[in-house]
Amino acid sequence: MSQHHQPSTLAALGRTWVEAWNTRDLERVLALYDEAAVMTSDRIPALGFDPSGTLRGKAALRAYWGKALGLLPNLHFSLIDLFVSPDSVVVFYENERGKRICEYLRVNEAGLIVQGSANHLPH
User: Fold this and answer.
1) Domain range holding 111?
2) Is residue 2 pLDDT above 70, yes or no?
3) Is 1 within a domain?
């Protein structure tokens, strides 16, 4: 079971996550994730990946995010706010298209992301 992390540590992870995406360096992003990480997003099936919307493991994340980065040459996240719990951070940001998104990131004892969920507005 995950231990409690300091709020400042989780907030720093959230800022690092945004910075990593803004470099468009996929390996830098993946370095924040555990090998067995699970990611859920409604965009996963839209890009031709698992119809359940859930991917498991870094290899699957690398394939999905690699394809997404290729389709989004202007990808950029602008941090709006961060919300923390003892073992997670929610990153609230706006993407390059003006869409606001909340990304839930749960971490393990080592501070690596083990579960992620991209949450978009329903419209």
Assistant:
1) 7-120
2) no
3) no
What are the distances in angstroms from CA 68 to CA 56, 63, 103? 17, 9, 16
Q: Nearest-CA neighbor of 105 among 42, 9, 5, 14?
A: 14
Q: What is the mean pLDDT of residues 15-31?
A: 97
Residue reference for tokens 């990946």: 49
Q: Is residue 71 part of a domain?
A: yes
Taking the CA atoms of residue 56, residue 57, residue 62 and residue 65 in that order, the dihedral angle to the nearest 10 degrees is 30
CB 26 within 8 Å of CB 66: yes
Strand-pair partners of 90: 83, 104
Q: Domain tally for the chain?
A: 1
- Return the exposure string of 11-39: e unless at least 16 CB atoms fall within 10 Å of the residue's CB, then b: bebbeebbebbbeeebeebbebbbeebbb
